[in-house]
Amino acid sequence: MSKVGFGVLNWVVLGAYLLAMLGVGAYFTRKASKNTDSFFKAEGHIPAWAAGFSIYATTLSAITFMSTPEQAFLSDWAYAIGSFSILIIIPILVKFYIPFFRKLKVTTAYEYLEERFSPVMRAISSLLFVLYHISRVAIVIYLPIIAITSVSNINPILIACVVGGLCILYTFLGGIEGVIWSDVIQGFLLLGSALLICVLGIFYIKGGFGTVVNDVVTNHKFISGNDFNIGDLSKFVPLILAGQIFNSLYQYTGSQDVVQRYQTTATIKDTNKSMYTNGWLALITIPLFFGMGTILYSFYQHTAALPAGFNTSAVVPYFVITQMPAGVAGLVIAGIFAAAQSTIASSLNAISSCVITDFKQRFFNDKFKNSNDVTLARGIIIIAGVLGLAVAIYLLMGNASQIWNLFLSVTGIFGVPIAGIFAVGIFTKRANTVGVLTGLVLSVGLSFWVQSLNISSLLVACVAFISAFVLSYVVSLLFPGGNHDVTGLTVSTINETYVKKN
């Protein structure tokens, strides 16, 4: 397939966007440099709506920007059901999780695990997050670039260095406040880009929206009876919803890049408002991104044709580059990179907060007592960012993506079991350190076995969460000697005064 030129005007628009993001980071440099409270929590000065936008932009990567439309393009909207999981988990988060994070005034999510269980659980969970997110940075850079450069003559190494390098730099400069306000801009840009693709796609199709609706009905492109066929778990709607609930519980309770936002607002009421803002934005995603895939399906059925042997993972950038006017295409490609950068920047700042708070300040503060923690935090961002970027470039230069995807899945499979550990700590009083450590190991082993069956990644999520919760609790009952004081740390003691242990 011949590649399409990107054009000078598109480069100008993309360059202007990238420089604007760098400007946001530079603007907040002085405020971020005050102390770690400023660098990691923005001193609680972020408005609720902005924190909500930031959570939304963080959870929506460039991979989602392209893979969600591809799902609707190839099949239907079955996976859209998973997006409704946010309506189920937000009330649970607001009532049972966020009060603990706010009460403990945690910088990282894993501080709760130390108070509830032991320093070992804190260190293990934090280290797993760091390893997973360094690898995730590489994948978030690699996948959108490989898709875009497969249909255009953009140099992949150059664009990786520019997009990834500038993202590292503005994260380094502006701290979490710079990251959040960049997320806000990027959130508006990626939503606007998605809407523009939908509008122009309908405009270009002969018969417009009516043709799209006819294709949906004729080709079963919305929801069909097959989506409730338990014989095909890859599209079984109840499993999609359940699996996404458990995945989301990890993202919103055990993943530092999201939990970190809970402390950036002034009050718990503002934190709750930010969650509902994020929830509404997540629901908007359904018609925008799944609708985009259905519209592109109609477009390439009636108006244009895809090249022979075309890789549909690049259907969105291919449409943008070949069908949109110069300048506008550059803006939409900037929207795809905005989705990537919001995820990368959040991961880098969160990695830094874990290394500084969970390891340096917790275990090695005496050895590094003369060091400036903000300076160290910025150094960690550079190191983690360069590592992720280097791996992304290595993947772009070779054919080792399968190896790295395996590493990503190995480290990532620990995620949902950690969510089960948080849940058993909050909702039970009997869970203890021996129980949750054993439950974590057994759950990960069971999850690996289920994953090896290649049935569904969402089934893995269900097994991982449920087994971590149940096994941790059962083992804790069998070995009750290691129980901690849970005053103020569980649902049944939530209203009791909590005194932080030394």
TrEMBL record:
The keyword DNA repair does not apply. It holds the Pfam family SSF. It is found in: Cell membrane. This is Putative sialic acid transporter. GO terms for cellular component: plasma membrane. Its main location: membrane. Keywords: Cell membrane, Ion transport, Membrane, Sodium, Sodium transport, Transmembrane, Transmembrane helix, Transport. PANTHER family: LD47995P-RELATED, SODIUM-COUPLED MONOCARBOXYLATE TRANSPORTER. The chain crosses the membrane at residues 6-28, 48-65, 77-98, 126-148, 154-173, 185-205, 279-297, 376-397, 403-427, 434-452, 458-479. It is a multi-pass membrane protein. GO terms for biological process: sodium ion transport. Belongs to the sodium:solute symporter (SSF) (TC 2.A.21) family. Gene3D superfamilies: Sodium/glucose cotransporter (1.20.1730.10). GO terms for molecular function: symporter activity. The keyword Metal-binding does not apply.
